Amino acid sequence: MRVLTGIQPSGDLHIGNYFGSILPMIESQNDHEVFAFIANYHAMTSVGDGERLSRLTMQAATDFLSLGMDPSKATFWVQSDVKEVLELYWILSSFTPMGLLERAHSYKDKTAKGIASNHSLFSYPVLMAADILLFGSQVVPVGKDQIQHVEIARDIATKFNNQYGDIFVLPEFRVDENVATVPGTDGQKMSKSYDNTITIFGEEKSQLKTVKKIVTEVVGMEEPKEFANCNVYNIVKLFLEESDRIALQKRYTSGGEGHGHFKMYLAQVMWEYFGEFRAKRLYYETHQDEVREILNAGAAKARAIAQPIMEKIRSATGIAY
Ligand code: ADP
Ligand code: TRP
After folding, report:
1. Per-residue pLDDT tens for 86-119?
2. Which of 3, 5, 47, 110 to mutate to test the pocket of ligand 2 (most atoms within 8 A of CB)?
3. Mean pLDDT, the chain, as a whole number?
4. So where are the chain's domains?
5. DSSP secondary structure of 233-271
6. What lines the ligand 2 site, CB under 6 Å?
């Protein structure tokens, strides 16, 4: 099964990103054909500073490689290194009714928040459809906010196929209901928009400072404590094996320890969990040329899939003459 994911290079990754999307993607490399790319053209809709965008693109590549993206198993590249996607974006535009884009929630939400409306924000789903269709993707794992975009890709592909024959694979979205929403330090969904994140690669001291900010119930030290609704427990449990979870639950219900102890435990568990990834990241940070080579090789692999599909499209549409 061919599974495709696009990642916006939008800054420091947090543990919500890790459990909600990175870990499932890393795990699926073993039994699926994983296509993953850094969506730097898409990021232009929000990052208007060239130096920053190129830095964030390399940072995203470095982070994903450090967290287990394996270029010998998956195809991993930067969107702008496979230019065919822009050609397809234009071709698909002729199969995209205006109404389809006008109904897009993400566009409506962004403009409602006061983000200036421009053509790239409006046509964002068409480029996303090109990303998906260019590689014959069967499944696109997404968060709930992106479901509609995959449906738009499917609608565009259907319209195109009706006119020119069965060229595109019709993609399906997949929302993993087993993946819990990771709470942030304030108990809301962890999100960089809410300023409540715990980053994956922060410094030890600042990680501890963030963990100490997690909102908890006020209960006396000796009192037994609830674990099920505790923000600290609901984060730390993601890192623990069943037996360690049970042991921690006992510590909560027995009393005698305060939330400060559980916070220290979370900081320590998290620091150990990401230890091997930090070491890899240090390596890649000091070997950025190697990261570039991996990305170039990934783009070549991606292009080898995209080109025959693109030739079929050019031929069917009469662009090849
Ligand atoms: P943010 O909300 O911080 O802007 P993004 O929208 O960039 O995060 O999310 C990137 C990926 O991480 C998406 O697949 C999203 O579903 C996942 N993700 C983000 N926050 C969480 C969370 N708190 N819990 C689970 N998954 C999350
Ligand atoms: N729009 C996606 C997001 O904001 C990123 C993305 C771009 C994407 N192209 C894609 C995701 C293709 C899946 C498939 O998260």
Report:
1. 999 999 999 999 999 999 999 999 999 998 899 9
2. 5
3. 96
4. 2-181+288-317, 202-273
5. HHHHGGG--HHHHHHHHHHHHH-S--HHHHHHHHHHHHH
6. 4-6, 8, 39, 42, 128, 131-132, 140, 142, 146
pTM higher than 0.85 for the full model?
A: yes
Q: Which ligand is nearest to the CA of 177?
A: 1
Confidence of residue 144 (pLDDT cuts 50, 70, 90): confident
- What confidence score (pLDDT) does residue 312 get? 98
CATH class of the domain whose range is 202-273: mainly alpha
Distance CA 152, CA 69 (A): 28
Nearest CA to ligand 1 atom 2: 191
Please give the CATH number for the structural domain made up of 2-181+288-317.
3.40.50.620
Which residues sit with their C-beta closer than 6 Å to ligand 1?
8, 10, 16-17, 19-21, 143, 181-182, 189-193
